[in-house]
Every structure is written in C-alpha cells, then in structure tokens.
Amino acid sequence: MKRYLEVFFRHKGPLVGLIVICLVVSTAVVMILPRTYQASASLWFDQSPISDSSAANSQLTPADQATALIHEMVNTRDFDTKAGRRGPLATYYDSTGNFPNSDPVTPIVHWLEGKPAPTGTTRAALVDSGVVTTLQKYVVVAPTGPHVVSLSFGFSDPTIAAGTLKAVIDQFGEQVKSTILATAQGSVDFYDAQVAPQLKVVQAADAALARYVTSHPDVRAQNAPFDPTYAGLQQDDDLARQDYAALTQKLVQAKLTVASLEQPGPYGFRIIDLPQAPLSASGLLKSVLFGVGGGIGVGLLLVSVISLLLVATDDSVMRGSELQQRLGLQVIGEVPLLSLHLRRADAPRKALPPKLA
User: Fold this and answer.
1) Which of 13, 8, 24, 81 is nearest to 295 (CA)?
2) Would you tell me which of 148, 246, 255, 278 could form a disulfide with 37, CB atoms 3.0–4.6 Å apart?
C-alpha cells in the first residue's frame, strides 16, 4: 500500500489531472445529452372498463383492474403501432430517421458501407418498431387511488410527449369501446333473434287460452269450479308473457348500450387531467449528479489501474523487505530514503574562495 501511495504522490499532478478530465468530460456529456420531458395524465374509473367476474379481479379496485388492462394493451404491438400513428411519434421517426434500435452495430455498418436510407415498407417497419420500443419502455401506468390511474410518458420533445400520451389514451378508449361494442352488438343480435320466436309463443298461448274459453265459457263465471286445464293454459300464457317481457327488456338495454358506445368520447372512464406539454425537463439534477459521480468513479478507476501498472513496472527503487520477498535473498544493506529538505540541510556547504589581496 505504501508503494501505491508513493507512486501516487510522485505523479500526483498527472493523476489528479486525469480525475479532473474524467469529471469534466462526463459532466459535459450529461449536459449535452437530450433532455427528457415528462407528460402526465389522470383517468377516473368507476368500475373496470371491461367487466371480469373472476374471483381474483373481484378483490381488486377499479384502478388496479384498469392499470392491468392498460399494461396489457401497451405491451401489444397492434395497440402501440396504432397509438404511434394516431399521435406525432410515428411522424417524428419517419421524418427524422432517428429510429431507436436495440442493435447499435447494424446502423454503423450500413453507414460505413454507404447504404442509402431505408424507404417504403422497410422504413415503415422501422418506424413501427421504433414506436413499439419507445412506448413499451417509456409509458408508465400506476394506480394513485381506488379509482384514479396515472399515466406518464417521457420524450425529448415536450409537444411529442404530450401528443403521444393523448394518442395512447384515445387508442385505449377506442379499444375498450370496440371490445364492449362487439359484445353489446352480439347481445343485440342474440336477443333480437329470441324475441320474434317468443312473441309467437305468446300469441300461440293467447290463442289456445282464447279457444278454451270460447268452448268453455263457464270457466270465467263467478264461483266457477276449478278447471285444471284452464289453470294450466293461464300459467303457460303468463310464463310466455314474462319471458317475452324479459327478452324485450334485455334487447332494449343492449340497444341502448350500443347507442351510447357509438357516441364520441371515452366510455367507461373519464379524463381528469389532460396531457399537457411540460415546460421544463425532468430529472436534470439527477442526471448532473450521475454524471459527476460517474466521472469521479471512472477517474479513480483509471488512477488505480495506472498506479498498479507503475508499481508493477518500476523496479529501480525497492525496500529491503520487498527485494527479499521478490528475490528470496538476504539483504545486507539498505539506503535510507531522505526527504528533499533533509538532503539539502545535510549537504556540505561550498567553501568560499579566499579573499584576494
């Protein structure tokens, strides 16, 4: 350890300068990197937008169920590409060609080979891939209460951040409406197909009851004896009418649901806080501190490696214990290491020349 300290203090100027250079470079890199602007929004859910009667979901709050549903949608390619092209994100990637890529080597190889920029379906595929990567990485969804869900999205452009988050919310609303609409339309078709046959059953029951009353008019007389056939026909007629009324009510309710789903605007939730373009970047202080800490860490690592190499390659001066450990020989003498101040003090003074006569 003493050798390392001696090497450090012997070359402290260059080594400290190296730490300072690393600190300045890392801080400068952090400062010139693009800033991230965070757009946020809040949604209110009275209940889960898509009903699920499973036992596990019955224990969750509406916000928890909605959060899980949004996560599932954001993690699908179809949803992300539609949301990206609905907002400004896909247009930004298409116009700038700044596609995020998990493989940084391929673009460099293409640049060195002088390949032209991709066009047509290849460019569209790169745009969609960039949109999917960006949304799945930077869209954050979290419940902030039993009914409130918070969404945020960070990007280097504040306008694109707000526009993309709004597109995600709009696409979520459209996806929810299309899912519920398909179910509601299926219910309309089902009940509509059931109502007409049930109406015929009611009409047949009415006709049978009317025919029996016509042939047996005494069944309606006051204090008429009990007629089991007449009672059975009345019960069949009442049941047929009840079934018809229930089917008609369900058909009307399904049609009302379809009509409300066809209206513009979100369904099953409402937007409390609309996405707004942020005025300032987020996490600037954190980035600067990270840059300063990273620069100091890299500088100390380089200083340690350089000191280790200097100690390993410098065999001009050694202590007796180090020499004995390295060579395995007995040391018979050792020159003491004197400081510069002591060496100057102990140096013999030069005699003055004799005074000339």
Assistant:
1) 24
2) 278
69, amino acid identity: L
Tens-place pLDDT, residues 228-240 = 888 888 898 899 9
Q: How many other C-beta atoms lie within 10 A of the C-beta of residue 77?
A: 13
Give the side-chain half-sphere CA count within 13 A for 325. 5
- Is 327 exposed, middle or buried, given 0-12, 13-18 or 19+ CB atoms closer than 10 A? exposed
Measured CA to CA, the distance from residue 128 to residue 48 in angstroms comes to: 30
CA neighbor of 39 nearest in space, from 225, 228, 178, 166 = 166
The answer to whether the beta carbons of residues 93 and 127 sit under 8 Å apart is yes
Q: What's the rounded Cα separation, in Å, for the pair 46 and 61?
A: 9
- Whole-number Å distance between alpha carbons of 299 and 88: 41
Residue 8 half-sphere exposure toward CB, CA atoms < 13 A = 14
Can you spell out the DSSP letters for 236-297? Answer: HHHHHHHHHHHHHHHHHHHHHHHHHHTSSS-SS-EEEE-----SS-SSHHHHHHHHHHHHHH
Q: Which of 101-115, 161-175, 220-234, 254-268 has the lowest mean pLDDT?
A: 101-115
Instruction: Compute the distance between CA of residue 136 and CA of residue 153 in angstroms, rounded to an integer.
Output: 10
Contacts 24+ apart (CB under 8 A), 140-146: 141/67, 141/70, 141/71, 141/74, 142/67, 143/61, 143/63, 143/64, 143/66, 143/67, 144/42, 144/63, 145/63, 146/61, 146/62, 146/63
Positive or negative CA dihedral for 310, 312, 314, 317? positive
Tell me, yes or no, if the pTM score tops 0.85: no
Distance CA 47, CA 72 (A): 17
C-alpha to C-alpha distance for 256 and 248, rounded to whole angstroms: 12
Q: HSE (CB half, 13 Å, CA atoms) of 78?
A: 5
Tell me the two tokens of residue 70: 């949004």
Residue 336: count of CB within 10 angstroms of its CB: 5
CB atoms within 10 A of CB 351: 6
pLDDT, tens digit (0-9, with 9 covering 90-100), for 36-47: 888 999 999 988
